[in-house]
Amino acid sequence: MADIFERLIQNYGPIGQYRERAHGYFAFPKLEGEIGTKMKFRGQEMIVWSLNNYLGLANHPEVRKADAEATAQYGLAAPMGARMMSGNSDLHEQLEKELAAFEFKEDAILMNYGYQGIMSAIDALCGRHDVVVYDAECHACIIDALRMIPGHRFVYKHNDLVDCEKQLLRAQTLIDKQAVGGILVITEGVFGMAGDQGKLKEIAALKKKVPFRLLVDDAHGFGTLGKTGAGAGEEQGCQDEIDLYFSTFAKSMASIGAFMAGPRTIIDYIRYNIRSQIFAKSLPMPYVVGNLKRLALIRSKPAFKENLWKNALALQNGLKEKGFDIGKTDSVVTPIYMKGGVEEATAMVMDIRENYKIFCSIVVYPVIPKGHIIYRLIPTAEHTQAEIDLTLKAFSETKAKLDAGLYKSDLIPDMANK
Ligand SMILES: Cc1ncc(COP(=O)(O)O)c(C=O)c1O
Questions:
Q1: Mapping DSSP to helix (H, G, I), strand (E, B) and coil, where does residue 356 land?
Q2: Closest Cα partner for 222 from 104, 362, 375?
Q3: Alpha carbons 131 and 182: distance in angstroms, whole number
Q4: 15 lines ligand 1 (CB under 6 A)
């Protein structure tokens, strides 16, 4: 019989295999200081492009004050217990009402985390005869949810309407055969890696051919898209067609928690059946108060979103003018596509960090195909034109070195904290 622990340490997984050289630098880096566009990494100040603090709320003085006062007033313990048993409060319900109104929906339910919240909501929504049709590039929280549900699931090629319709018809045929069950389509408002918006309007139009309910994870659209910041549905003029709208508070809200909004009857169903909330302590009061404050700021100060877009467009247009491939983004998420191996990518990142003092994230094989590198830059409302200019210069110079083969090496640099 094999020992489980022995097996695990034979293979630490796709990223873990590099940990002895990468830990603390390429993986698990520590950014220190106040959250902002300049933070310290290993003692050096860097321009940071890695934080989903889109609207710059993380360190806004009113937010910090609300967080601090709520923590002083309630501590981290309150309320004790799960919402259903003893952990409910007027403020939890107020936040739900305000989020529902912000999303033009009847009701909303709070969740403690986005990842576990959406997983558990999908689990609550889908019975064994239901079929889920979903985009191939959905976030891990959706993919992982689909591992749990007992019914069938059909994946369609990313944002491919023809394939989506094909999978819907497959689902319909299966349901007709079963003579029971319905279809839930799951996609995203903005795909967080490539930054392209889900084709929500076109997908919703398919309801005329095959009836289904539409669930949208709009983690990156909330606060960043749409006239009022309500997200990708508002941006595309199809918010009413989204049956269930989901977002985490981990990005524009710069906080913790998540919510799902939709028809009162269905949100109530979820409220009484979502296991991640029924069997877990409710969102602590400081988060509820802090999130109320953030939402009030998002509603009353469109300047955050305007600055975010000003910076995003300056960065994206600057990259395009310099000949960079930023793919199909139509959100503020800014990927830069390059070609190179894992070793080259890590040497390039080191150069960008150590010599240009710029901190951003990279994605390499095996997360994406071999030979490709994706840099992922997240502009925020707080970045300055000077920071954007320095970043454009750094990328131009390092890309020239990459193309000249100057980063070629057989090993990733050993930068681990020893
Ligand atoms: C699209 C998407 N959905 C869900 C989540 C998970 O949210 P949370 O961080 O609140 O668990 C994330 C990442 O934060 C995300 O990018």
A1: helix
A2: 104
A3: 6
A4: no
Tokens 């390039």 belong to residue: 348
The H-assigned helical ranges of 41-109 are: 61-74, 90-102
Dihedral, 343, 347, 349, 354 alpha carbons, nearest 10? 160
pLDDT of 414 = 83
Tell which one of 52, 111, 113, 115 to mutate to probe ligand 1, the residue whose CB is within 8 A of the most ligand atoms. Answer: 115
State the distance from the centre of ligand 1 to the C-alpha of 117, rounded, in angstroms.
9
Look up tokens 């020992």; give the residue: 3
Atom of ligand 1 nearest to the CA of 188: 1
**pLDDT at residue 418, rounded to an integer:** 58
Q: How far is CA 180 from CA 123, 155, 173, 183, in A?
A: 18, 21, 11, 11
Q: How far apart are CA 26 and CA 17, in angstroms?
A: 12
- State if residue 258 touches ligand 1 by the CB under 6 angstroms criterion: yes
Question: Does the CB atom of residue 139 touch ligand 1 within 6 A?
Answer: yes
d(CA 142, CA 164): 17
Q: Which pLDDT does position 161 carry in this prediction?
A: 98
- Helix 285-300 vs helix 303-321: crossing angle, to nearest 10: 70
Taking the centre of ligand 1 as the mean of its atom positions, its distance from the CA of residue 250, in whole angstroms, is 7
Element (H, E) at 156: strand 152-156
From 118, 119, 138, 139, mutation site for ligand 1 pocket: most ligand atoms within 8 A of C-beta: 139
Q: Is the CB of 248 under 6 A from ligand 1?
A: yes
**Residue 399, both tokens:** 């890309």
CA distances to 159, 218, 385, 392 from 336, in Å: 20, 22, 19, 11
How does DSSP classify residue 56? Answer: S
pLDDT averaged over 10-residue windows placed end to end, the chain, 418 residues: 94 89 91 97 97 98 98 97 97 98 98 98 97 97 95 97 98 97 98 97 98 98 98 98 98 98 98 97 98 98 98 98 97 96 91 96 86 95 98 96 90 76
For residue 92, give both structure tokens.
């939890």
Q: How far apart are CA 185 and CA 37, in angstroms?
A: 37
Q: From the CB of 217, is ligand 1 less than 6 Å away? A: yes
181: left (phi over 0), alpha (psi -120 to 50) or beta: left
Tokens (6 digits) for 381: 């409302």
